[in-house]
Amino acid sequence: MASQPEQTLKRSLGLFPVTSIVIANMVGAGIFTTSGLLMSGLNPVWMISLWLAGGLIALCGALSYSELGAAMPEAGGEYIFLSRLYHPLMGFLSGWVSFIVGFSAPIAASAIGVSAYVARVFPGMSWETESLLAAFITPEKILSVAIILLFTGVHLRGIKVGAGVQNVLTLLKIAMIAGLVILGFTTGNGDMGHFFQGESLSSGFSGWKTAGLSLMWIMFAYSGWNASTYIGSEIRNPQRNLPFSLLLGTGIVIVLYICLNTLYVYAIVPADMKGVISVGGLAAERLFGRNMETIFSLLIAFALFSSLSAFLILGPRVYFSMARQGHFFKSLGKVSPSTHAPVNAILLQALFSLIIVMSGTFDQILTYMGFSLGIFPILAVSGVYKLRHSAGNTPRFPGYPITSGIYILSGTAMLLLSFFERPAESAIALATVLIGIPVYFLFRKKQASA
After folding, report:
1. I want to staple 213 with a disulfide (CB 3.0 to 4.6 A). Which of 12, 59, 134, 421 is the partner?
2. Cα torsion through 105, 230, 398, 408, rounded to 10
């Protein structure tokens, strides 16, 4: 059964498109929306320091996943790693969380981010009536739904079409960020004195909890450093291209994130940044005036298409792999004979994303998603130690065992501190994992009786 995905998903992607998917998966709603939320509990120096720390943690994770992905270059990411290294139940739970949270929620967050920037350009966009229905179905949510449906249609046409669109969107996104940073520092109306303003981090355990939650939100912005492991069955020469895509993509994104956050602080007084979701648009307004704010807000909204598109590529490949091994709905293991796309998995991914868009606020989605996504990469990185001792001629990468240890310890600390800071959202995330246990045994029972 393990070889079946190789018979249906084609190895057609080289280093450039795979690295593009990694970058697109990382550079999305997180970097364009979370810095304003972070400033509610941090000062500029702490915020930049945590963004740098998050990047180094992501790089440690990418080095560990390079070994895992080169040793097991198949579609599915953590689902494959944990199933092979530990037990199929562990792999299923990671895929279950990916299904409920890991991809659907980031798709929803990216769509909401697009709507927030469009609303910044058109602030008068609202319903005339104040009915209950109008409060629930807002113009922003309708726009978010339309965007998800549009990109679902693109990726139903297959990986070559989807990757081609992805390459263009990612290049435009990087060009837009580079342009904003260069113009902002050379011609923008900013002040480096903003770095010395803002409140200090709370002392004692309260400050540690704030830092832990903030770092977890930052790690959501870096999530995607493992993206190419989800499409291992479609990468040419995976032992080389898969690891290099992780390391190259993560390195580029760290530089972009530090530059962009430095620009945010340069442009905006810390007190004005607090709680602002469309922080990139606010930075453009302070740097260049209202007209340029409109242009950059639309460009950032367009850039978020790239990350949303990347999630729609990756998520369905996990469910496809689970279904082909009998651990999920059988229909999700089918591909289109003409496009070789996992059509049913893509459609189900879109459905769950639409449900999340219609429920919950942005920061609730962010916390729930960040906690859920932090659990299984820790377990997967721990598997590198087991892989080193049990496997023979698997590729080796530098940093072991220090890099894996850094990722495991920092990831565990983040989860614990975030739980104490936001117990409700964290408990819901844990409950989501636990619900997957009986679901797994139901599928096992169904598979045994088939």
Report:
1. 421
2. 40
